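Quick question: what would this complex look like in 3D?
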Amino acid sequence: MLLITCPFCGQRPEIEFAYGGEAHIARAADPRATSDEAWTEYLYVRGNARGLHAERWRHIRGCGRFFNALRDTVTDHFVATYKMGEARPDRTEGKQP
Amino acid sequence: MADVAMTMTPVRRAPLDGLAGDPRARWAVPMARFSLRLPEAAIGAASASLGLDLAGPINNVAEREGCAILRLGPDEWLVLANDADSAAIAAALDRGMPDRRFSLVDIGHRQTGIVLDGADAADMLSAGCPLDLDLAAFPVGMATRTIFAKAEIVLWRTAPTRFHIEVWGSFAPYVWALLKEIGREYPVMENTP
Amino acid sequence: MSEAFRLPDGGRVDRAQPLSFTFDGRRYGGLAGDTIASALLANGVHLVGRSFKYHRPRGIVSAGAEEPNALVGVGRDEAHYTPNLVATQISLYDGLSAVSQNRSPSLERDAGSINDRLWRFFPAGFYYKTFMWPRRAWTRVFEPRIRAMAGLGRAPKAPDAARYAQRYAHCDVLVIGAGPAGLASALAAAEAGARVIICDEQSELGGSLLAETEARIDGLAAQDWLAATLARLGAFDRVTVLPRTIAFGYFPHNMVGLAQDLTGYQGEPDDAAPRGRLWQVRAKQVVIAAGAIERPLVFPDNDRPGIMLADSARIYVERYAVKPGRRAVIFTAHDEAYRAALALHRAGVEIAAIADLRGAPEGAWIDAARAAGLPVRPATTISGTDGQLRVSAAHLAPIADGKVGRAERIECDLVLMSGGFTPSVHLFSQSRGKLRFDPALEAFVPGAPAEASLMAGASAGAQTLEATLATGYDAGDQAAGVSGTAQVRHFAVEAAPLSRGGFLGAVPHGRDPASVRAFVDFQNDVTAKDIKLALAEGFRSIEHVKRYTTTGMATDQGKTSNMNALGIVSETLGRPIPEIGTTTFRMPYTPVPFGYFAGYARGELFEPVRETPIHGWAAERGAVFEDVGQWKRARYFPEPGEDMRAAVARECRAVREAVGIFDASTLGKIEIVGPDAAEFLNRLYVNAWTKLKPGRLRYGVLLREDGFIVDDGVVGRIAEDRFHVTTTTGGAPRVLATMEDYLQTEWPDLNVWLTSTTEQWAVIAVQGPKARDVLAPLVEGADISAASMPHMSVAECRVAGVPARLFRVSFTGELGFEVNVPAEYGRAVWETIFAAGQPHGVVPYGTETMHVLRAEKGYIIVGQETDGTATPEDVGLGWAIGKAKPDFVGKRALARAGMAAQDDRKQLVGVLTEEPGFVLEEGAHLVADPAQKPPMTMLGHVTSSYWSAKLNRSIALAMVRSGRDRLGETLHVPLADRTVRVTLTEPVFYDPEGSRLDG
């Protein structure tokens, strides 16, 4: 069971969280102005990174907040967690904090 | 037509009515409960309205006689109060926050309270709760939403060996029965309430 | 039977506590402190099992967790029976009943041993090569026979009567293993003030110290030092000591699974007390002090009962006061065997020979053996053994110039072997730590860790007791992490050092390799020849060799076999071991009974059973319930003598003609509050919300971004800034999570908040032409007449004296209300309404009737008519879409190609069978041409199908390609035994004008 640092509650066990898929995929402000291709990309296409992966988690059995995390998909180590709306931290690698 | 209704005295039935439990667990008396949600900018006004500081750290409790406010998240508080104060709480917020940038929802019947009291209380909860319940890690006055086996609960430590558990009504019999089952591993002490 | 091999004194067994047990029905004596294995050996019993494939007689090889052979079933009856327990790990208790496995009819006379005589036909991978034809024989002949022949224990025939406990735990330092390294670690961490958990698989803490009679630590005899250290640890109140507790799995982020035997070792004296407890320990640091495992030597016929690991034999002497035999031949490549030989010699075992593979062994232990007059034979191998149910002789052959000379037969009843020690890196490897090959040790040792873990003692490659203690203390101190100034502590140890290294692979034997079997993996019956065969057939990767030969698989996970298998691969391919690498160690370290994982989750605690506030009333009425997710819902309320069809017909009639009462409390409910509540709903639902006035309801449809329906429900506007949203029963958590997702991540600008109120309200639906007559006298604070409270409106009022949200809404097509009252008043209000309804003929109805009534009206159920690929248009809900809205979730996707009505999409239609009495099966397919050869062109499928009492015929709903254009067409439903003709119709079968909604 992973140990995840909620930006609001601190370290909590994975069982309290729900995974939310890849982060930083914004819904277009005006979907009508979006091409079919771009909309398909938005709906279905994900990076599937090997290594650092920015992803969304929700502390659903805790404070209820969504937040973003940088996790290394090879080691399962979290390198950073940060609040929604904050920019992805400038890291290319790192160890569990 | 209202005559018929006026003569009625409705019976309130709690989810745990009539269910035997562990001797260390008891059903908390019925109380007023609200989910209070508001943005950071409104914390001051709400605190003033309720006479309790809502700005304390997340996962901590602000308390006064007859009212406890558990901060469950950055914008979420669980208000537990005397049943009789229900209307007063709503009115105070209505008065104090005229821009209505908040949400107060009555959840008095959504969930029920269980008090677990005894020297083994933390160990019993650790059978199903993944948090570190060591007094240093989970001190008195800490409260958080978490899980207990297959139920979501709000867990509030009210004394070193006493916890208040809030659980949705339909999950309460499960939590109650599980505590009873776990309790079989821990002999009941003479002086346990 | 007397314990003829028990020594008169010594050991840690309690001669004042004699125990009695049975093995395969025969009664034996043992002592408190024994394991099943040590007690059997005390009685001279070596033969304990038959091997997996060849059914060869097998004996006890080891004294610990690495045991590959001595698997037994234990338990006084079927409800307490556990298969595949390791006899070397199970503490003896009085009355224990153990049975051997994989033999029939008995261990001594096993029919399956025919396989041993036919062994040439069962090479590695034989099941990939044989039984290929005839095909039908596989399921009828080969597989049943193989299943009967192969395998280990059998599953118990009765449910497990024992209870199991679980516990989450947290600590600064978890120490795995309580041998000298683990104890020193725990001591260091405890002295630094850390919260410590130390666990050990054995009944007593101490590990190797329990069999240590010679060494001294800090001036104390090793066992006295052990006692003093345990007392010291016990004095720390932040130290938790867990004996009989196996660390079986290392999970991410330093979570370790422990299985603690609580009462199993007492013979489950009381089913009220848990048999075991699963611990999930989250540690800031983990110290692995798991010791090392002695390697067997791979020589021909090395698997006969009476052939054991040397150090294990010594443990039986020193710890259990048991002589493993009378006359021993010892075969070694490591000093340990000399130490064992001396211990056995002291215990009165005759040492017939010590065959040492090494050319010129020297050192303190060899000198001591020579001084004791033990016959040491350097440069000697064993080329074979004799004996059937017990070894009776070993053939010793000299090695000179790389050639094996003529063998001499030496009679014995015990052969001890030692190929050196393999550090126990299983848990470290499970944690994804990298292993590193140490050529000096000829072993894989821990390299870079992947978790916050430290290795100590023999599992880190320490070779001496002094180094074991020192690395242990150092690891414990580091793990406690006190200010970085590591405490250095010296343990004064007096003990003779043992050699390094040993032997990997198959020993030379000078015989025809095709005619001998030298076992590498005892548990899986894998020989050196099998591994060479796999290599000859082209397998190169060690992972492939493992799977092809099965070496290193099953319950022992190759604890004794992996390194020898690697040695053979390395030698055969002529490549060094580090290039070959090692296989992944899988959890569990040793088998853990399933009950530990189930824990409390059995019977009524398997899962929360959610009941509504009205459940008790329905149960008392004899309702039949159905599971809807975790909820129990009343399905129908049978009167005496009624079956479901009769009950449902009666309930339907009551609702259509008078009034019915229905518990809808499980409906999901979400309170949406805040200045931007309407805007939030606008962005989310297909409908337009801005103009909905307080006091009114609207049917809302929710899509995913891909345009497909995900949920629906009635939404009431309670105030300008407050909505009462309902969802499907099963969809409630998902819808709330979706809403939170959009609110928090896409539209954080909105001032609106969401609160689940599913359980705040009990919901009592009162439906039927008399519904208003029943409710009106109970309502205060609202006028519910048709004029003031039209269809799709909501009033806050009191019902039966309780504050209520009264919805005028219908899912039946009749005049209807849904009374929402605070849950704990639900039953009282229900009973009051039910009593008030008596003069009007009120009938309680269940979900089955609800389904029929809504199907008669063509109302869809999300998840039944829809399957995640239906748009609103597809199911006739296009009218709900707010056409003027620039955007809502799913709108953009609806504009994509293929999503429009003309795109030959599946659409909702009604289906009437030509034969009115025939009720179609849900899921049945519709085709145009019943004569078409399969696979037929399927046009659609039946989603709902019921008997309609009101219409006196069957009705069905279906999703059919371009269904709206096919209304009136005849299609066919092919079934197993016949084909049914049906006509497509409008999906509304009853009161299409909706005139009944107003009663």
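Answer marked as accepted. Chain B touches chain C through 57 residues (CB under 8 Å).
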